[in-house]
What we know:
With 401 residues, the chain is α+β, with helices and mostly antiparallel strands.
Amino acid sequence: MRIVASIKIAGRALRRNKMRSxxxxxxxxxxxxxxxxxxxxxxxxxKQVEDQVSSLGSSIITVFSxxxxxxxxxxxxxxxxxxxxxxxxxxxxLTNVVSVSPEVRDREQVLANGLNWNTQVLGESPxxxxxxxxxxxxxxxxxxxxxxxxAKSAVIGKxxxxxxxxxxxxxxxxxxIRNLPFLVVGLLGSKGFNLFGQDQDDVVIVPYTSHMHxxxxxxxxxxxxxxxxxxxxxxxxxxxxxxxxxTRHKSREQDFTVRNQLELMQTVTAASRAMGFLLAGxxxxxxxxxxxxxxxxMLVSVTERTREIGIRMAxxxxxxxxxxxxxxxxxxxxxxxxxxxxxxxxGFSTAVAYFKNMPAVTPVGWIIIAVVSSALxxxxxxxxxxxxxxxxxxxxxxxxx
Length: 401
């Protein structure tokens, strides 16, 4: 019953000074709200980046053409043509390799329907949509037979379709690349912009053999896209590709570069999470300031209520009762402030996410951390004032004016 009585007394004390109680909670409200908002927005941004990386495809390994060392000259990937179609076919035979697409790419002016558009023209295999996790909105992907026969078939992205065939179905239409007619056999589903700011839908895809022999007359690939069976198989496949190509190229040094999707994902998410923790740490300073504010007000409250404390102790209240009463007041202020801060932080991050067209994700773990932190701040900041109040001498307290 003593606890219940202490709670009632603490509640009446807080209600007597509503404005002061609200201002005291303000520091905790701002601190908790800032932490929740910053974590929510950062987690949302991280999820958005992860989704964009995933949209590039799953379990992908990319082999880039071009590391070289010649005399005193050295160059990185893309600086020399070193990958061939034969290399890609050899990679296809490795264990845990699901799909392979030799890739060549150029920018070309594409004409159709009395209109023209400069876009990226990719030479790929029929496995490309599977590797890139890309759907075909209408029509179909060209076939292996089209690759073998150097067919003039093309699959186009939504941006190209909108520019060359506004309000029309592009499937079955003819586009011209370097004045060569290509039949549009498929329309890719829309993917939007990737995390590098590139429009993924601004693309025309043709058989890599057609690109190499009809459009550009080249013999080397820009890169090779490889899909592993799953993420756990990536490291093994990557090492297998490295060993295979070193043997095929009869070179002690790599004249190619092998990268996987997990490396990109880990780099991007690590940077986002580090920024999130930094923002949360800065915001947490407000919690400390809020705790100091609660301690300051509680000390003022002890001084103002010295006579009240003396009367309570004179009629039988123990030091522990006084301690509990002031601790309850402190924890109540902190807990209410924390609850309002959590609601405000979620509301603010949701509003920002809505207007910025991005997701806001509030991890449950951070909400629990905010609740526990609020309670601990209430206890820590209220303990000294409560202890000081409990140590007052009843006679001296009754004399206090």
